[in-house]
Amino acid sequence: MESRKPQRSALVDSYVVPGDVILDLADMTNQTIKLGAGLRQDCDTIQATSAGRLRLSKPNKYWVENSQKRYVPSVEDTVLGIVVDTKPDNFLVDIKGPNLAFLPVLSFEGGTRRNIPKFEIGTLIYARVVKANSIMNPELSCMDASGKAAEFGQLKSGYTFETSTGLARMLLSSPTCPLLEALGKKLSFEIAVGLNGRVWVCF
């Protein structure tokens, strides 16, 4: 069975299965493409590795959305992780992926050896995936691309629950998820949604 070779963006919002060709990079010069969950590059093509709906967000980030609870890390994902161990140079963090993630002790705004954060086991962290592949543990950072803390770091108090990766992406969708918009009209709250299927809410 031959893989389909659609034009650019032709399969966005359509159902794809493993092996489907999503993009032909030979026809896309001088463009940067970011790949999320369920996709991989094979020579000059981008192919699906899992079944679900192909989604696209600006600028040019593609992923396959489904209801799986198993999270596969991708670079630039925002995640909620739980510290499970501490090392001299790294915190080991559970992000619901196949492997534990590393969070270097200097991956914080203004981080130096003199002001290393003190996280106990069980601490909830909101972080960004900066390195991810199938053969190495993912690496996290509590800074945005400009080196600022932004919204990243330790999350205190509040309530944490787990959901599917598909629902997590829906909560992060633009425009604002109708559920969150309706809730915001009734209550004042803070929320952090991880693409790994963890959600933190503080009222």
UniProtKB/TrEMBL annotation:
Major localization class: cytoplasm
InterPro entries reported for this sequence: Exosome_RNA_bind1/RRP40/RRP4 (IPR026699), KH_dom_type_1 (IPR004088), KH_dom_type_1_sf (IPR036612), NA-bd_OB-fold (IPR012340), RRP40_KH-I (IPR049469), Rrp40_N_euk (IPR041054), Rrp40_S1 (IPR037319)
Pfam families referenced in this protein's UniProt entry, alphabetically: KH_6 (PF15985), Rrp40_N (PF18311), RRP40_S1 (PF21262)
Location(s) in or outside the cell: Cytoplasm; Nucleus, Nucleolus
Biological process, per Gene Ontology: CUT catabolic process; exonucleolytic trimming to generate mature 3'-end of 5.8S rRNA from tricistronic rRNA transcript (SSU-rRNA, 5.8S rRNA, LSU-rRNA); nuclear polyadenylation-dependent rRNA catabolic process; poly(A)-dependent snoRNA 3'-end processing; TRAMP-dependent tRNA surveillance pathway; U4 snRNA 3'-end processing
One CC-aspect GO term: nuclear exosome (RNase complex)
The Exosome complex exonuclease Rrp40 N-terminal domain, residue ranges: 33-70
Sorted UniProt keywords: Cytoplasm, Exosome, Nucleus, RNA-binding, rRNA processing
The UniProt record lists the keyword ATP-binding: no
GO molecular function: RNA binding
Domain K Homology: start-end pairs: 158-202
PANTHER family in UniProt: EXOSOME COMPLEX COMPONENT RRP40, PNAS-3 RELATED
Protein name, as recorded: Ribosomal RNA-processing protein 40
Organism lineage: Eukaryota, Viridiplantae, Streptophyta, Embryophyta, Tracheophyta
